[in-house]
Specification:
Number of strands: 8
Mean pLDDT: 91
Helix content: 10-25%
Number of helices: 2
Distance between the termini: 34 Å
Radius of gyration: 16 Å
Low-confidence stretches: none
């Protein structure tokens, strides 16, 4: 069976393109790689990626994410170290962002918050593989 190498990018529909670009630049430090003015913004964290996140404008009246609908639950950005995750937590609090949850999944520790359109974001630190629990079932909590 042929399978993908890795997830390449995620595209989010947003109400206000400029506001979302500013949020992802300020809060997560993403770089703007390219723009289709008024339509899309392509952003990355990894220097070797053309983009990992693209934002597409759908207008101010678009309905927001709904918990009971099929679709995206959240997407996650991996932090380099546990200390970086800890610093990110404090930065999120300093910005006045609502921390929606903190999860210890046994293999990773994640912090959950939302962007201006209500899309849930996780920043996480993945434990080294040798620290993962044995077997296929991971223990931990789920926010």
């Amino acid at each position: 069976m042929v399978r993908p190498k890795k997830l390449g990018h995620l595209v989010l529909r947003v109400r206000d393109l400029d506001r979302s670009e500013q949020f992802y630049s300020d809060v997560l430090g993403l770089n703007v790689r390219a723009k289709l003015e008024g339509q899309m913004v392509f952003m990355n964290a990894a220097d070797d990626a053309s983009h990992e996140l693209a934002l597409v404008s759908v207008g101010d009246d678009a309905p927001g994410p709904e918990v009971s609908r099929v679709g995206l639950y959240h997407f996650a950005w991996e932090m380099e170290s546990f200390e970086d995750l800890r610093r990110m937590y404090h930065e999120l609090l300093e910005r006045g962002l609502n921390i929606q949850g903190i999860g210890d999944h046994g293999i990773s520790i994640g912090i959950y918050f939302a962007d201006p359109d209500g899309n849930e974001i996780e920043v996480f630190y993945e434990l080294p593989r040798k620290q993962w629990p044995e077997g296929d079932v991971f223990q931990g909590n789920f926010p």
